[in-house]
Every structure is written in structure tokens, then in C-alpha cells.
Amino acid sequence: MLPFQKVSLLSHLTCSNCGNIHSAFHTQTLSVCCQLPLLSHYQINNSIQKEDILESNTTLWRYAALLPVLNPANRVSLGEGLTPILDLSKLAELHSFHKLSLKDEGLNPTGSFKARGLSLAISKAKENGETACIIPTAGNAGVAMAAYCARAGMEAVVVMPRHTPDAFKDHCLAYGAELLLIDGLINDCAAKVKALNENRRYADMSTLKEPYRLEGKKTMGFEIAEQLAYDLPDVIMYPTGGGTGLIGIWKAFRELQQLGWLANDARLPRMVAVQAAECSPIFDTFSGKQTNSKNYVGRPTLANGLAVPRPIGEPLMLQVLAESNGTAITVSETDMLQGVLELSSKEGIFVAPEGGAIWAAAKQLLQSGWIRSDEHILLLNTGSAQLYLDNLKDLWQRTND
Ligand SMILES: *Cc1c(COP(=O)(O)O)cnc(C)c1O
Ligand SMILES: [Zn+2]
Questions:
Q1: Residue 391 is part of a domain; what is its CATH number?
Q2: Ligand 1 atom with the shortest distance to the CA of 239
Q3: Which pLDDT score, from 0 to 100, does residue 171 have?
């Protein structure tokens, strides 16, 4: 017998490329077979009911049965998850949307949904006996890892582009992380991490290379379903960088189908990957401008989270767009700022530029007719504006000019 009550139904991992089975019970990175992301599988059967959600737990850990941490004592939590879905009735009326809502991930610990993934990844690292972690980041993931490592008593090394706003760097330092600044984008940071970690001294928390950040982000999908009484929206607008959230939300919907918690005839939402025009590898592949993003060169954008030029999860993202009848779209820097200002001044929600981008994209898709006038559109705002203030300071001026 285990010395604790096992709540997790985790059974094994599979290679997302070839389907080979891998163990879920020791530290894993990319699949050894294909060097691609691993996906977690659970012993899903009808012994688990909606009522088994731990409703007394008001964090993402309420879904513990479908999360990979085996021993509850290993959970490293700062209260992440269960963020509100807010009605945007004023903006809906102004722009002729039938129903518009926003899930506000900016309310998570450390100001973004990266808290979900890093809570899971650091908990699982603790369960696997790791004591030091390293991460390449565009900003928010580094801040979140620094906080969760502090909480867990682990050493943290964060590798970030030099041009990232200072607030991201200051937060990492305040949490006690070692901070390395790199000239370039997140893929250059990833190369640095690889070089620094050849002796595997650190657990590598790179998204999708570490298998469980995905499982943390998956909980957004569980929450959307639960909060909307299992009546899913028609469209989900998602600001896509590495794609972990897009892939995770879709994985959640598939698991809910397997559980039988969604109506049999219920159509799943169409997923929209929103990218910055300055860095749009998924848009370019989706729209046939390139066969894949292996040689894509991106530029920095105010939405740092979207500056991921060569995401390893590209095939999984394209699969989600195909299976969901979704699409990909780009937004200019000006339009995303206009989007931030409109959400803050009209609805009182001060979103990150990534959030501004999805709102700008929703308006474009309504105009083009891709979004129909009778549909429920959910904006998934991934972060708060707080850490971006350096870059947003003259937003009011700029947009008034
Ligand atoms: C990381 C990040 C994104 C991109 O998330 P992925 O799930 O990796 O695509 C979007 N918005 C914000 C605020 C982020 O920090
Ligand atoms: Zn494989």
C-alpha cells in the first residue's frame, strides 16, 4: 500500500509522434524515440464522476484525479487556477457580438496562466526528487518558475531575452532566482539552457520538453467546461506562443469526452490561434506560406509570450486547429494595444498585450464572417498588464494621437 491516498489516475506517457509508451514514474523530457513531446494518459473509466471533482478545493488541484502528481504532499501551490469567466456585455453590444466572455488568467499567482503549468511541473519535479530547475522563457514562465521554486525550496535559473521589460527580471530576482540575459528570442535562450545543462544538473522546465506544464494548462479546459455547466462556447480565442495552452485546453475537452461528461452531440469549440504579426510561425504554416517553422525568423513583440519563432509543439497545434475546425490569425502591434485599451477602459480589465491581441482578432473574425453573429466567443486572456507596464506607459498617449 502507498503511504498516502493516491488520487491521481496517471498511468503512462506516450510519444506525441509515434505513440510509443513511456514511463510516467521518473523524470522525463522529450521522447527518446522521436525527440518530441510526451503526452500524459490516465486510467479514465466511468468510476470517476463529476462529483469527484474536489469542490472544496478552490485551486486547479480540484482536478487532482486527472493531474500527474501522485502524492498530495508534493503539491507546490500558490492558489493557482479557478479564475473567473467574466461577461463582456458592454463590448459585445458595442461591436455586435451575440455573447462575449473572457476568462481572466491575469488573476493567477505571478500574474499569468504560466502559474498553472509551473505549479504542476515544480510539484512533479519535487515528486521525482529534483532540487534545481532551469528554464528558457519569454518572461512570464520564468517569473512563475522562480516563484514556485522559492515555494518548493529549489534552486532556480531563468534564461530570458535581454529586451524583456525590467519588471519580469525584477520579479525573478525577488524570488531568489539566478537570472541570465540573452540577446535574442526564446529559442536563443533555449540553446543557452541546453549548453549550460549538458551535465543534467538542472531539471529542464522548457515547455513541452517538460511533460507536465501541459497538464497544468489543461485545467483551463476543465474549468471552462465546469464554469459554463458543460455547455462549451462556440469559439475560443487563444494567444499562441509555444502552444501549450491551445494543446492543453483541447486535451482537456478530449478527456471530458472520454469521461462522458459532455453531451454526446455537443460540438467542441473552434480553436483560434492568435499570433503577433511580428512573430507568426503557426499562422504562416497554417496558411501555407511555409511547410513548417523550422527556419522561421521572428521579431520581438510587445506580447512577449507570443515571440516563439520555432515552437516544438507545432504539429500538435496544427492538429488542434484541424480537429476543431479552427483557424490562425495575426494581429499588429497597434491593434493589440488598441485592444488592451478598449478592454481596460470599457470593461475594467487591464490585460496583457496578449489579451489585447485576442480581442483585436475576435473583431477581425466577426468582420470577415468567420465568427457568426449568434455565437458565444470566449477570450482566453492569459495575463495581467502589471508586468508589462514599462512598455505600456505611453499607451494612452499613443492611442490618442
Ligand atoms: C506564454 C504566454 C503565452 C503563450 O502561451 P502558450 O501556451 O505557450 O502558447 C500567451 N500569453 C502570455 C501572457 C504568456 O505568458
Ligand atoms: Zn516517438
A1: 3.40.50.1100
A2: 10
A3: 98
Establish if 308 belongs to a structural domain. yes
Across all residues in the chain, what is the average pLDDT?
A: 94
Please give the tally of structural domains in the chain: 1
Q: Which residues of the chain have pLDDT under 50?
A: 1
Tell the residue nearest (CA) to atom 14 of ligand 1: 305
**45, part of any domain:** no
Cell digits of residue 134: 532551469
Q: Which of 383, 295, 369 is nearest to 340 (CA)?
A: 383
> Does 217 reside within a domain?
yes
pLDDT digits (tens, 9 = 90+) for 57-99: 999 999 999 999 999 999 999 999 999 999 999 999 999 999 9
**Residue 129 belongs to some domain of the structure:** no
Pocket test for ligand 1, best of 140, 280, 387 (most atoms within 8 A of CB): 140
Q: Which protein residues are within 6 Å of ligand 1, measured from CB?
A: 112, 114, 140-141, 207, 239-245, 305, 352, 354, 382-383
Q: What local confidence, expressed as pLDDT, does residue 37 receive?
A: 97
pLDDT of residue 26: 87
CB contact set of 158 (below 8 Å; sequence gap of 6+): 134, 135, 137, 142, 145, 146, 172, 177, 178, 179, 180
Alpha helices per DSSP H over 153-266: 166-174, 186-196, 213-227, 244-259
Cell numbers found for residue 231: 455547455
Residue range(s) defining the domain that contains residue 222? 85-111+212-400
